[in-house]
Design goal:
single chain, 338 residues, mainly alpha, Rossmann fold, two-stranded parallel sheet, 14 helices, 5 strands, elongated, glycosyltransferase
């Protein structure tokens, strides 16, 4: 895993310091611009024009065990809404010129497709989410989809999610990756009540016990505690990083997958930025581990990639500032710092 270009990072930081703005005035926008420049290996950075969002959809066995406020049937229904362009993230993507693609990896429906690994993933407190062969297939799906998006010219990639119950396996991935108990990572997901939260905690605790020592291996963790859609999303982020394409992360699912990808191949996190802070505690814990500070904190818990897409204008704004603001030396010849 090569790192973003250190020389470009230094040059971008120097350019930022030399802009005709007060020192530090651009705050997180300045930091984001430096990150984009390092990922591109270009100073000033090129405009971020081709943002590609892939929504990985799949069902989860735990959804039938009281961990979600919605029934599993919503997953398939929402896939149809995405395809019609009428979902929440669809509206944001249209507003911000983001290409959206939906990939059915494990929706529990008879619909077949080139990327379908299975119909739903196992209930992780009772059984493994996947077989080892299915995990390998799901990882291959994520890699292949990422390669197609890169070939289409992506200069910023986003992974979205759709799957009722998916915050439970995602929280399990974070607990496994950070060595934390279920009590520290469990959240309300789609908005479960106190009884639902207690059931979710019980499911997580049982799942982590059942997985045992396998949590030390990130791929075995995906098999035991993840799902086909989360495994595909993990490979998507990993493949983007390997190709040197930056990734803007969404909420818990995307961040859990990025954390897992960074466990598979350390260095992935350097190619990632956090679009927004989720209401799920596991997301913040994983972001802290990866050293990422979200651009937005709006109380969002929609999923779908929506928080990251909402942050795309900030990334573009950051690049525009570093590209187009005059240098102080140009405004006041003889001056070199802000």
């Amino acid at each position: 895993m090569r790192a973003p270009d250190a020389g470009a990072r230094r040059a971008a930081a120097e350019r930022l310091a030399g802009l005709a703005t007060p020192s530090g005035a651009l705050g997180r926008l300045g930091e984001t611009a430096v990150w984009v420049a390092a990922c591109q290996g270009a100073v000033p950075p090129r405009p971020v024009e081709r943002v590609r969002l892939t929504i990985f959809a799949g069902d989860h066995g735990v959804a039938r065990h009281g961990v979600s406020a919605y029934p599993p049937e919503v997953t398939g229904a929402m896939v149809a809404v995405f395809e019609s362009g009428r979902a929440g993230v669809s509206a944001l993507a249209a507003a911000h010129d983001v290409h959206v693609r939906v990939v059915d990896v494990a929706v529990d429906s008879p619909a077949a497709g080139p990327w379908k690994v299975r119909r739903g993933s196992g209930a992780i407190h009772l059984e493994d989410a996947l077989s080892p062969a299915e995990t390998a297939r799901a990882l291959a799906v994520g890699e292949a989809v990422a390669r197609e998006e890169i070939a289409a010219g992506a200069d910023l990639m986003v992974s979205g999610d759709m799957g009722i119950g998916n915050t439970t396996p995602a929280a399990a991935l974070v607990a496994a990756g950070l060595g934390l108990p279920a009590t520290e990572v469990v959240g309300r997901g789609t908005g479960v009540d106190d009884a639902g939260l207690a059931r979710k905690l019980e499911v997580l605790e049982t799942a982590l016990r059942r997985a045992g020592d396998r949590v030390a291996d990130p791929v075995k963790t995906l098999t035991a505690l993840g799902s086909a859609d989360l495994a595909a999303s993990t490979a998507y982020v990993l493949t983007a990083a390997r190709a040197g394409v930056p990734v803007l992360l969404d909420g818990l699912m995307a961040v859990a997958c990025a954390l897992t990808a960074d466990r598979i191949e350390p260095g992935v996190a350097a190619w990632c930025a956090a679009g927004h802070r989720s209401t799920e505690p596991a997301q913040s814990l994983a972001l802290d581990k990866m050293g990422l500070e979200p651009l937005l904190d709006l109380g969002l818990r929609l999923g779908e990639g929506s928080g990251a897409v909402a942050a795309v204008p900030l990334v573009r704004s950051a690049v525009a500032l570093l590209r187009d603001v005059a240098l102080l030396a140009e405004v006041l010849p003889g001056e070199s710092g802000a």
